[in-house]
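Work package 3, deliverable 3.1, input record:
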Amino acid sequence: MEERIIIAGFGGQGVMAMGQLLTYSGMVEEKNVSWLPSYGPEMRGGTANCNVTISSDPVGSPVVVEATTAIVLNKPSLDKFETSVVTGGNLLINTSLIDRKSNRDDLNVYYIPANEIAIELGNVRIANMVMLGAYIEITKAISVDSVYKAFEKVFGESKAHLLPINKQALEKGAEAVKSLVNA
Amino acid sequence: MTKVLMKGNEAVGAAAIAAGCRYFFGYPITPQNEIPEYMSRELGKVGGVFVQAESEVAAINMVYGAAGSGARVMTSSSSPGIALKQEGISYIAGAELPCVIVDMMRGGPGLGSIQPAQGDYFLATRGGGNGDYRMIVLAPADVQELVDLVIEGFDLADIYRTPVMILGDGMIGQMMEPVEFKTEANKELPEKDWATVGTGGKRKPNVINSLYLQAEDLENHNIKLQAKFAKIRENEKRVEKYNIENADIVLTAYGTTSRIAKTAISKLEKEGYKVGLIRPISLYPFPNEAYEEINEDAKGVLTIEMSSGQMIDDVRLSLNGKLPTYFYGRTGGMVPSPEEIVNKVKEILGGDK
């Protein structure tokens, strides 16, 4: 088992934090994990992305070039990473901010209105967790319980009170793709 | 011990403090800023001292001073900053003082880029400063090994009274992986009877110096240094070897590049190729004997670096003409992909499996 994931969006959407949470959750399950951020000279409001690997074997290159899943939260990220996913891989598109369909017909593409779902829950900043919930439902790469365990470790005690709303976001994200996954 | 997920740079700081380092002097530069950030936050809590110096030159000379008093001390920087520290490193090597220096390499030459690179191999292993000196250079490939080598680096520095360089790159500095801090007892360490800690009126003063105006004295000092470097070469080589007895081709790479090589090897093995790997962990002393163990029917050795070819000089010296050598590298902050390495291997083997 090896999941190679690219998570991309613009600065402030929480793609780095989401990647760290996913990585930590993999570690909780005693899998081999790595998290590699982009740290290039990006403009404010520019793209941010990270590479996450979760594997039953030791992680080789931490750079994800042949992704099994790409999670894109804005349009420049779709343009940039759509071609990075291997045939048969997963592409999760945040339709709240992306108005086009995928050009790939060899992928499992999931369209998720993450911002709308997050706003309904009362906080647009948890759109990343909606996408993470969808990812876990699709791949079952980790269990959602591991995410709960990792949450406080990644975000600290001061954010522990936000766990309930983040749980809701994970559940809503899973719900959004459930019919597609089980189809 | 339970594992924690840590960024490479923060893990350097945590490892140093675990090793008893209580003094850090540095100057900021990307992509290693989390090291001084961590030390500025954490050293005070354990009674240590953090100083952001006015320059890299000042920082390395503060390291010189602290090391002279026998303290466990560290500095860190990235390529252009390490270049500025060379004078001080030469003085520290000349005065035979222990310290740990971390270089998270970025693209060069000059100010270059902030992306990962391996263009400081010559600087690190040949002695970037003046004079006939070497220092121990260790190249971790993952965050756990980074932690282990920082901790061990402090011991080696004390044992040999030498600067030890941890040579990483922007990738290992920025990435997060699970680590655990093993609480093993330190090696038996020599007493620091040379340190300038005050005589108490009971002995002659210790003098820390690298200036010997009498040529005979300086030559004797150099002979002593060279004997120490010979002892380091005898005792401190570290290397990971994989399948070199049966391989048709052997890849060799250090640090993060070796992980990309490993991914390339698993791809090639799936296609039926027999590919080995030599990963030097100590770059000085270079593990030359490993290259003598390669299957003599192998078609050659492919060195892969994030540079235009620096470690390949040591690979050639180690092989001494026994096998053909090939090179694949990317520069400027570009990272080679496993696919590029796979293609290069196929090009060399010409389709032979």
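The helical segments of chain A are 15-28, 75-81, 114-121, 127-139, 144-155, 163-181.
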